[in-house]
Amino acid sequence: MTSEYSPWNWLRSRFTRTVGFAILILWSIAAVYPFIWTILASLKTNQALTSNIWGLPSSPQWQNYIYAWTTGGSGGSTSVGNAFMNSVIVTTLTIVILFVVSPMAAYALAQAEYRGKSTWLYLLIAGMYIAPQVSLIPLLILLRGLSLTNSLLGLILVYVSSGLPYSVFISRLGFLSIPSSLEDAAKVDGLSTFQTYWRVALPLAMPTVLIGMILEAIFVWNDFLYPLVLINTASSNTLQLTLYNNFWNGFNRQYGAMSAGIIISTIPLFVLYLLFSERIKKGIAAGIGVKT
């Protein structure tokens, strides 16, 4: 019997597999439990939550969801419903702009040959390491000079500029995985550079491009810092800022309504994952082992 099939190797592989499954189970519990606890908290009153923080709701308070969606709360003047639509507008327009610009820039950095290509790539990567906190004051001064503070348009432009380096970097991995022979064949068939990009390269790189777009959508949807600094008008507040202003800011904190608002805010991301889960898996597989 070779060492490959020895009892020790079998026991070691069995032990490794068991430990791996145990770690994954514990990790899943750690990830899912806060979400379950938030659902339970959203169905309680403040008194019920503080008296029995870990228990099940004795009488579910479904009106917390209605209150969070329609009412401005004690600390703000806009409802979660209005802020939800603001976040939808900001996230959608940001991703649309990034989807138009990022793949074209990524294609130029991945497949085209020109002088200074490496320099542009290094500058792009450097942009990923600029912390948002560092650029807040310059951004505020710039937007104030352009009269774009307290506006969704200014917020969208900030998200596009901050998300461009990362989305281009991720999209570039998809274009790097495309064999050069396909582009050569497209040129032989008489396709222009843009036609080659649009008809050949972009469809093949689409799973990876979508990963970059989905990650940026998650960041924009959940972001709290930029709206906190750049938005001072209640009617233009995004969802995360409204949850803070309405139910957490001040002394009268409404835990049940805030938890209900948090659950509402997770629904679009959950639907997004259900719609694009297969493409996400393909994009991750396409980005493994590509040349850099």
Uncertain segments: 288-292
Largest sheet: none
What is the gyration radius calculated from CA atoms?
24 Å
Corresponding CATH superfamily of the largest domain: MetI-like
- At CATH level 2, the architecture of the largest domain is Orthogonal Bundle
What is the residue-mean pLDDT, rounded to a whole number?
85
H/E series: HHHHHHHHHHHH
CATH class (first level) name of the largest domain: Mainly Alpha
Give the strand content.
Answer: under 5%
The rough form would be described as: globular
Helix content: over 70%
Q: Would you tell me which CATH topology of the largest domain applies?
A: MetI-like fold
Structural description of this entry:
This protein has 292 residues and is mainly alpha-helical. The chain has 2 domains: 3-42; 71-286, MetI-like fold (Orthogonal Bundle). It contains 12 helices and no strands. The chain has helices spanning 7-42, 46-51, 63-70, 80-110, 117-127, 132-145, 152-176, 180-188, 193-222, 225-230, 239-247, 255-286. Helix 3 packs across helix 12 (255-286) and helix 5 packs across helix 7 (152-176). The longest helix has 36 residues, at 7-42. It is globular. The two termini are 43 Å apart. Mean pLDDT is 85; it is low at 288-292.
